[in-house]
Amino acid sequence: MGIYNQELNLRTHISKHFHLHPKSIEHILKDYHVNSSLNHALVSSLKEKIIINLRNHKVWDRYSDEEIERLIEQELRNYIERSITSNQNLIARTNANKLYITIRYSGTVLLTIFLLIYTVYQVMEKDLYHSINNIQYIKRVIDPSDILLLLFIGIVSLLFTGPLLEKMYGSVKFLYLFFLPGCIVFPFQNGTIVELLFGCISGSIGFYLGLTVLRRRGITLNKVWMIWGYFCFYLALFYYKIGVLFDPFPLISASIIGLLLSIWIKPKVHVVK
User: Fold this and answer.
1) Which regions span the lipid bilayer (predicted)?
2) Which of 51, 78, 100 is the last residue of a domain?
3) Which residue, 174, 173, 189, 194, is CA-closest to 251?
4) What torsion, rounded to 10 degrees, do the Cα atoms 260, 182, 241, 208 define?
5) CATH code, domain carrying 128
6) pTM for the full model?
């Protein structure tokens, strides 16, 4: 059994009385934030209110008014310090939340930055193929401007479709799900970054197809028709620009892989707006 401490009990009652006089506490806090010191008149008024309430209970008669006032001032200073610390923690959490909002699509941002750097590098080098590629057998060489256009449209596709998947699965899992279909079919393509990117986007098409079908399992993607419209546009543009290089089988395979992944892997969020 614990030891009864009457002074500690009195301090507790004083702290409770602070909540009974919110306007007085608010005025004291505002003045303290401005002047960095307690306003004697406001504190004295609060002390009188608390002492009157305490004197209604004879249990505190052994304490003089001076002792109670001293304890009130001590508890008031402790209360102010806790309020300042609480406000600082709230500000820190708010700033952390703002930072989180800024980088919450870190996977999409990382991929976009990589593609932009690669695009700039290829423009400077004027070589949109890997040095190990041998494309002499191809009947029609792709114009560099066409590949730049496809890279740009691919980046837009990533910005348009990536955040939804990243919100549902998280950044790390999103990167894994985005790259896996494209990397699996990449050896069966001509070995260009554009085709790798389109293989990854084809995997995303399969993923969105799976998520659209899986609505009955409680997964909802609002305005998914906009994404499907964009996919159709990108497919048509890719076929038009690639021409004889267009090979549908790796892309269909990537889409099937994405579809299977959407069935096997459970999302963290089931409703995405």
Assistant:
1) 103-121, 147-165, 172-190, 196-213, 225-242, 248-265
2) 100
3) 189
4) 30
5) 1.20.1540
6) 0.51
